[in-house]
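Amino acids appear as letters; backbone shape is given numerically. Here is one record.
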Amino acid sequence: MFDPVGSRIDLALAAMNSDLPTDTPELDALFAKLQAVRETRERLKTTQRIWSIWCSHEDVEATRAMRDVVEAFESGELGDVGEILDGMIVRWPNWAEAWNKRATLHFVEDRYAESLDDIARTLEREPRHFGALSGFGQICLGHGDIGSALLAFERVLAIDPGLEDVSQLVTMLRRRAQPTVH
């Protein structure tokens, strides 16, 4: 039987190895800071700044549309969000965060195959996208693919080594992924 989720996991795994975007000096500095900072408040400020950059766009209309999408997610009123995101992807196809938000919407709607497609598009544009990587890991866990989930969460930790919850999850998944002798 064909598993639409399983067939798309490989696409997302391949996208994890995409080239880093060029000409992103502020993001590059912030990601370097995540590697060095251990203090929780400073890490949170750094990740909030990364999200702020990801949700911004040189086109004011794009940023305004993203603000509407974020507000819809925060309020739980997702009625028109799919159409808005589809339009954003058509207008700004290289914007990683538009793809990521649509992946999130598909995830919330239990449309995991479509979510994986959009996660792959996100990671092709921004392979350091810890949100997309975390969503990918969650989908893999939900479908019993411990190995792929482990790869995703290890990548998240490589980006932000200070995430204790993810570190504990990786430790647990490593134990589960090890073969046992009976």
User: Anything to note?
Assistant: DSSP finds ten helices and no strands in the chain. Residues 103 and 124 are 13 Å apart (CA to CA).
